[in-house]
Amino acid sequence: xxINRRHTFHDIARQRPSDVPYLVSAWQHLxxxxxxxxxxxxxxxEFVRRWDWDWVKINPRAIYYSEAWGSRYDxxxxxxxxxxxxISDAVTTPEDLAGITALDPTVDxxxxxxxxxxxxxxxxxEDRAVLQTVFNPLSVLxxxxxxxxYPGDTYASGTLTREQLFQHPDKVERALGExxxxxxxxxxxxVKPTDQGGAGLDGIFFAVTGxxxxxxxxxxxxxxxxxxxxxxxxxxxxxxxxxxEVLLHTCRAESNPDWFERYGVQIVQWDQYxxxxxxxxxxxHVVPVGGPSFTDFAPGSDPAVVTTDIDKVIDLQxxxxxxxxxxxxxxxxxDDAPCARWPRRRSGERxxxxxxxxxxSDYRRIRTRTRTHHNNDTERTTxxxxxx
Length: 388
What we know:
The protein is an alpha/beta fold. Helices cover 32% and strands 11% of the residues.
């Protein structure tokens, strides 16, 4: 039996009867191919083709938001990490917040690049759902000052601390408003149907990052600096395309996924393997994303663990439809063997590794054109600082 994977994705998201109980996907940072709409789109298209994922989560470079407002990075030097080396921050003092103004995503070079890439990926995969990653306004604000997006992040190196920034709540709220206007317009353009001039995506992967993890922002603080701005973006998505889905991702330990049932989103993802987080069957009013831990995909991992974890999630769901994916972005590089253990959507048959399954060295040559300025041989495979 053949299925329409795109329609099935929407059926699962809306908790309608579906042809299969789950659809499978995964995503990764495509180091060396993150700049330029055509290059990034081609790398994403090839990554999806290799594994024939049932749905597509576009995974752009994590820092494109701060780039849009003036932060600068060395695109040719990742220093063994999943984001390029920072040169300067857009916000270094509270006074810099006054310079954060709304951008037109169809004109701004960074956002328009992402819109073009998304449209290319949409065109390549009209047979399955495609979602673009959009950080929430609070995460973007923190990124502009290179303030950690979750507690315990030692990679962030801004000159301001979170406490220093939020000593100026009026300035913060004004900047959040301008960021929100931009992200609302951007998300709306992403899901607007192609015949209306949009990118035609099926939905948005809305990442609140680790902002509510382990009390980083309390419920009261998030009610002021997070939720009101999140809702503006989510309303813009619904207004632009009522059929678009929102997959909300809350990252790290104690990530409070239950907070977001009240948002009215269709799908929620959290890491069920970390302390203080519930199992995948805990929320009843949204569709969960469950699967193996993203750390199971590091080189040298035991592929059998992936099988065990997926089988556990399937058992917990007791036939209720859901989406299968790793708990977060898989490491770069990743091991092919765990991917080969992923179930196909219609039977217990396991996925076969591509006949020309890429090694770490030839993964960087997804396209025939290489990037001679990159040196990724020492990229991290640990969870530290993994971005959505």
